[in-house]
Amino acid sequence: MFYIIGIIIAFFLALLLLGKKNKTLADKILFAWLMVIGMHLSLFVARSVSGNINFAFLLGIEIPFPLLHGPFLYLYTAAMTNQLPSKKNWASMHFIIPVLSLLMLLGFFMLPANEKVEIYRKKGAGYETQMSINHIAIYISGIFYVALCIMLLRKHRKNIEEQFSFTEKINLNWLRYLVYGIGFIWLIVITSSDFWVFGAVVVFILLLGFFGIKQVGIFTQTHQVKEHRMDPFSTTVSSVKETGNNLSNQTFNIENALHVSERPFISDITLNQPLTEEEDISIVRRKYAKSGLTDIEADRIHAELIKLMATSKIFTEPELTLTELATRLAIHANYLSQVVNEREGKNFYDYINSLRIEEFKNLVGLPENKKYTILTLAFECGFNSKSSFNRYFKKVTGLSPSEYIHN
């Protein structure tokens, strides 16, 4: 009964996606994946319940299915993080191994039903080599695709920090949990029996349904976040709170968010350990080696950026993006990203939030602000959540906001 529930939920979620309007490519990939999961579970239940007798014509079909989940996980993660390859036929390449696995069993599929059942009862007697190759391929596929998805998510984190001054709505932590969940299932595949494996798959489907329906832009309809431009000279705590409340009632389109500008300058480098200042400078220079931006023009843009931040304090806008700031400066977003990286030595996210921290320090030191709470002042400076403010403040100062105030 437990497995039946998993099958029902898998197909139900697939139907929800099928009925969704304006489906994204990620939605279509997830729909196909859920159908594969549902069929895989169904084949397992049919074989377990009937003892291979009533469904002998289906025997062997389930063998390549474990090799499908890794590619679907990768394609879904790549689609959600806007990192799908631009080459044609990129998707089909990831399904070559499952097809080869199926072709290895052509001789088995041509056998009479009673012989198939007998081979299953003898645990694959006569097909030991094919099964060993298939098992090795399953283990390698699981490890490879989980590692590949973790790399995609790390790169996505760097990408959004190049484009946004906030990460709460677009960090895709739930997708990271999804990848870890698949990794855990593969660990069970290596160490345990099919009953435990498919039991974990049912739990995975339940979590996928919960986070999928809860998460914006997947099972729910997608809407773009409206621009909330505030007068930088009259930004109040109440206006920030009102903006935050309005945004919380909308869904965030991650694909539109990551398409806000071209991204030839976004770094693909993943730092595994702290780098020296010289190494940081060298990396930034290589990153923009082919840029057409001259040093004189970069200095001019940097001066205008500093002036704009000092006079207008637009960093206090909670939803400020690189593209919006570039528009106000009348320059291309890529050039602004280069200036921030080279002249400030930070990505866009760190640059804007460091200004917010400095603004908080200024505000908290004013006697007239003693009546306000720490969180109120944090909202005034542009942060849109208590957790993000506390985390970044500690990162910059080494102290919590309370510790800083009382020192």
Overview of the structural elements:
- It is built from 20 helices and no strands.
- It has 407 residues and is mainly α.
- It folds into 2 domains: 2-214; 237-262 and 276-406, Arc Repressor Mutant, subunit A.
- Mean pLDDT is 76; it is low at 216-284.
The low-confidence parts are 216-284
Largest sheet: none
Q: How many strands in all?
A: 0
Taken in chain order, the helices and strands follow as HHHHHHHHHHHHHHHHHHHH
Number of helices: 20
In one word, what is the shape? elongated
Can you give the helix content as a percent range? 55-70%
Strand content: under 5%
Count of discrete domains: 2
What is the typical, i.e. mean, pLDDT? Answer: 76
In short:
The chain has 407 residues and is mainly alpha-helical. It has two domains: 2-214; 237-262 and 276-406, Orthogonal Bundle (Arc Repressor Mutant, subunit A).
Name the features.
407 residues; mainly alpha; Arc Repressor Mutant, subunit A; 20 helices; elongated
Topology:
Blueprint: H1 2-18, H2 25-50, H3 66-80, H4 90-93, H5 96-104, H6 106-109, H7 113-121, H8 128-163, H9 173-191, H10 194-214, H11 237-248, H12 254-258, H13 277-287, H14 295-312, H15 322-329, H16 333-344, H17 348-364, H18 374-381, H19 386-397, H20 401-406
Helix pairs in contact: 1-2, 1-10, 2-3, 3-8, 8-9, 9-10, 14-16, 15-16, 17-18
